[in-house]
Amino acid sequence: MKRTYTYALAIAATVTWSQSPALAQNQGFEKKTFDVSQTLGERALLPAVRAADPGTVIVTGGFSCREQISQNTARRAVHLAEVLAGRI
């Protein structure tokens, strides 16, 4: 017997589009590319995180964004899978 489950989530979201902070393959940690990584983060991602209400859950799809958020703000970002699993 095959069962299909459908879950409804009540989520209000604001989407901030930003360029990759270039941390993939350690590029953002290298001295020669660190400033570029920080500049990209400051274009949209980091200001949006800093402006978010303290009760807002910050969700990102990639490791690079989560890492940059944790290193440059007082916030912690999570992956969507964590939210859907009810861990937040």
List keywords for this structure.
88 residues, single chain, mainly alpha, 2 strands
**SSE string:** HHEHEH
Taken from the alpha-carbon principal axes, the silhouette is: elongated
Helix content percent band:
25-40%
Query: How many beta-strand runs?
Result: 2
- Please indicate the percent range of residues in DSSP E strands (runs of 2 or more): under 5%
The separation of the N and C termini measures 33 Å
For the biggest sheet, the summary is:
2 strands, parallel
| Strand line-up of the largest beta sheet | 1-2
Account of the protein in words:
The protein is mainly α. The protein has a domain at 24-84. The protein has 4 helices and 2 strands. The protein has helices spanning 31-43, 45-51, 63-72, 80-84, and strands at residues 58-59, 77-78. Strands 1-2 form a two-stranded parallel ribbon. The chain is elongated. The termini are far apart. 17% of the residues are buried. The mean pLDDT is 79.
Write the layout of secondary structure elements.
Blueprint: H1 31-43, H2 45-51, E1 58-59, H3 63-72, E2 77-78, H4 80-84
Parallel strand pairs: 1-2
Q: In brief, what are we looking at here?
A:
The protein is mainly alpha-helical and 88 residues long.
